[in-house]
Automatic annotation (TrEMBL):
Listed InterPro entries: Aldolase_class_II_sugar_metab, Aldolase_II/adducin_N, Aldolase_II/adducin_N_sf
GO biological process, one term: pentose catabolic process
Species this chain originates from: Pullulanibacillus camelliae
Highest taxon listed in the record's lineage: Bacteria
Stretches assigned to coiled coil: none
Any GO CC annotation of this UniProt entry: cytosol
Name this protein carries in UniProt: Class II aldolase
Amino acid sequence: MKIKQELIQAGHYLLAHQLAWGTSGNMSARVDDHHMVITASGTNMAHLQADDFIECQIDTGENKGTKKASKETPFHLGIYRKRKDIKAILHSSPFYTTLFACSDEPILSELFIETMYYLENIAYVDYYHPGSQDLAQAIAEQATEANIIMMRNHGVVVFDDSIAEAQMRLETLEMACRMILKAKEAGVNLVKIPETTVKSFLEDSFYKPRKKL
């Protein structure tokens, strides 16, 4: 299945670029209107193979495969149910993003082109235990508000209409968090792009089609 190969490549990329580590993350992709594939429990993204993915029915949650689906499957299902436009979901705990998830430090989107586009809307959910229904419900409730959900004291989940776009969204987030922290350490004052310019960029620049929620 081509989509599994794309997820395998994404997993290797995330590990190689410090956007994930060990077995701390999981990924999924929509196969069609009623099915998704998700990484199996305990898989290491650096060593993913085709049999490390479990196929699940989005409506019922039923799955088939020789391995156990990720314990975070409930919130992946919740996102796909809420957002018919979403084709891929990445959950990980990159260093700088997770640092911000463990603090009250704001993430600025008005810094450069990619942050204006990919970080336009960021939602937050409180800490709930991994795999819990409380976490799945909290994420599902926020899924219509943003394509990035910061999970307090846990990490982040990003989702988009393709694996490549979800990956770019995650990479932009980590880059922004790193920039904000490094600027604070160096005493550099970051100058935000004016709100009117941001609005003009999103609506009129034709950088990419603006993604509506």
